[in-house]
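Example record

One chain of 82 residues, shown exactly as stored in the release files.
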Amino acid sequence: MQDMKLGVLNRTLGKFGKKYLLNSKGYLMIEIIHYLLLTMIFNILFRFNFILNQILVKFEQTGVELLKFSWNACLSLIHDAY
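Predicted structure tokens for this chain:
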């Protein structure tokens, strides 16, 4: 698992990442950066969810119809896949 994280961080951070990953506390740096990346991703998803909820509240009827249409489209795609 640590090797996979090292590879991702080396590709993502380049020279900056390699400089700090080569020191004696490299594993701690990996965990900190991994945690920060996950935190950023969850914050983006939370904000997107909040914006989507605001849109659905504003256009409640249209939102419900859109949600039903999306759900039916997803079900038909799943049905077609199998």
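Notes: Residues 26-58 form the longest helix (33 residues).
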